[in-house]
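COURSE: Structural Biology Practicum
ASSIGNMENT: Worksheet 4, Part C
STUDENT ID: 0417
INSTRUCTIONS: Below are two proteins. For each, the amino acid sequence is given first, followed by its structure token string. Answer the questions at the end about the second protein only.

PROTEIN I
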Amino acid sequence: MPVITNIADLKRLHERRTPRMFYDYAESGSWTEQTFAENTSDFARIRLRQRIARDMGGRHTRSTMLGQEVAMPVALAPVGLCGMQSADGEIKAARAAEKFGVPFCLSTMSICSIEDVASHTSAPFWFQVYTLTDDDFMKRLFDRARAANCSAIVITVDLQIMGQRHKDLKNGLSAPPKLTPKSIANMMTKIPWGLEMLQTKRRFFGNIVGHAKGVSDPSSLSSWTAEAFDPALNWERIAEFRRWWGGKVILKGILDPDDAKAAADVGADAIVVSNHGGRQLDGALSSIRMLEPILDAVGDRVEVHLDSGIRSGQDVLKALAMGAQGTMIGRAFVNGLGAMGEAGVTKALEVIQKELETTMALCGEKRLSDLGRHNLLVPKNFSGDWA
């Protein structure tokens, strides 16, 4: 067993173990991948203030997210196709999150269904939905989430139209994978992955196949997907979804102060500052750059989380010190899942918590609630002086 000390170690194992189309799905962005790259490089531009001669005894990383006590303010973001990174991947990730004490968010485009995850866990989890046109499907999706005791709905608001992701198109991304000479040749080098997949019945989009009208098998899924997303989405429609759900709502995909204010106006309990991991509008600013303008716009009207670009506990600390009340990780936990299954997700969380706790101490703080701009060295005009 290799020694795992950071997320990059898990990423290397993930690449070796998982078929290329699924690894690329997790590790790529849209178009030129400028925003995908800057999500991480902009975190690196923020430096930390080292402080010494302070009592660091009794420190911890505990906090709350959306009123829930957490071991650290890091939720597992909704990521599609986790069940293709590792057999039954969403179940594995949800169990790891529950044992660790952090929120897990299941994607609508998961391989394991809401019911699958609920039957293998005991802690309530969050469920992510897209803004689809099919009212009947959406209402039944909310009913299924309620029956599974989901504690919040995460509405993804930045996917009305899908960004062009070159690697996914060239790889012919699908679940289960299409059998082409190229994909077969690649999968033949991933024997442990293939043996796991042969032992599970969960290889399709479990929340859609058999639930959406006209989608009785994977072959009919692509036509449904092409028609399902709502290009006419507006704030009234988001408010309608909020009424249908009736519980806590998080809006994910906010990258503009005006949209953040509109999200608060529509009654969101939390927003996630996110550019979809650089997979939608290439050329948009990184999430960490847009955090402060959004915080300035909404004040304390809504809880603000940050997603996109977090690869370490230091990144988590920087986001919290900049004012975020919580964070989400996607690729970091998927690297663990693809590398080592449930144990890999746990390892990713352990790595991030250790980095967060150690960095907090070296910055002279014992509690996450004490973090602030005083712990950082931020470049002037970091958020940009744009015309």
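PROTEIN II
(use this one for the questions)
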Amino acid sequence: MAAPVTCVADLRELARRRVPRAFFEYADRGSYDETTLHANRAALQRMRLRQRVMIDVDRRSLATDILGQPASMPLAIAPTGLTGLQRGGGEILGARAAARAGIPFCLSTMSICSIEQVHAAVPAPFWFQVYVMRDRGFARELIVRAREAQCSALMLTADLTVQGQRHREIKNGLSVPPRITLRNLLDMASKPRWAWSMLRAPSRSFGNLQGRIRDTDSLTTLAQWIASQFDPTLNWKDLEWVRGLWPGKLIIKGILDARDARIAAEHGVDAIVVSNHGGRQLDGAPASIEALPAIVQAVGDRTEVLFDGGIQGGQDLLKALACGTRAGLIGKAFLYGLGALGEAGVTQAIELIRKELGVSMALTGQTDARAISRDVIWRAGEA
């Protein structure tokens, strides 16, 4: 009998065994020496929680609102590329699980299932994440498609204009569609659940790019393709351009510096995401949680602050809330659940975080997720 899944780490181990190595390591690993990747977890783990007792915590509320919409807990699913290669139809499965859990789901430009495929399969509105590529006409087209799909928010990712080198992707020869080599073929053949899901998948290449971007099949690696398409000239004027095309809620992701946070707030974005891209871009950058308090202080009430970077459980989310975020985003934890057990695994990852958040709130004397303050964090020497 299989051991019960009690935490996200268990889902990660299942995913490691069930997803082909190239795709698992795409989700799991980071850039260069992976210093920032590991710092995200280490910084959260160093923080201590203040235990409180003899407080009535029988009735606790995890409910909040994110971008003016109700959410059952302060959590959202982050945009992740190649999601549909962790499990066939992965974007649809993730969006369904998020809708059922009552939290937002964000679809990536680099998704395998297209905007239209997810919209057709999942009635609940979802967010869409956009990269502004060299071809501004294509970027405009993506935004129009998101509007037509009735996406409830647009997220502009600002920290991937050039790609930090991810050694494992190069070593694994990661490409989309997957390159057929003897090693890859044997690996995929040893993953029957994954192979069966891919056979039934609605898409096996970049759904949002089909028919619009040429020559993807001729490139050796995904990194080469990104280098040819992503635009290093991206600047604040482009944010103004995006705002002119998008009348709804606008989020900018990839903020790690208080100066950039102030500029984003001055441009009238509805939310910023404090993020180092999961340790997959600038290696040596601070952990997201280390940058969060100063950014919250810098923007005040001018814009919502969301957090992305290392959330693997409810205590991580509680610490981020105590540092001032409105909600946390999960990327790796979501992909581990998806790769491990499909839609049920995504649901399990969300519910594991929900349960741990509720328990940890009780043990720190908290009853309302919207009112968690810095006092939850214990500091040596403080009364």
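ANSWER KEY EXCERPT:
Q1: The chain has 16 helices and twelve strands.
Q2: The chain has a mean pLDDT of 93.
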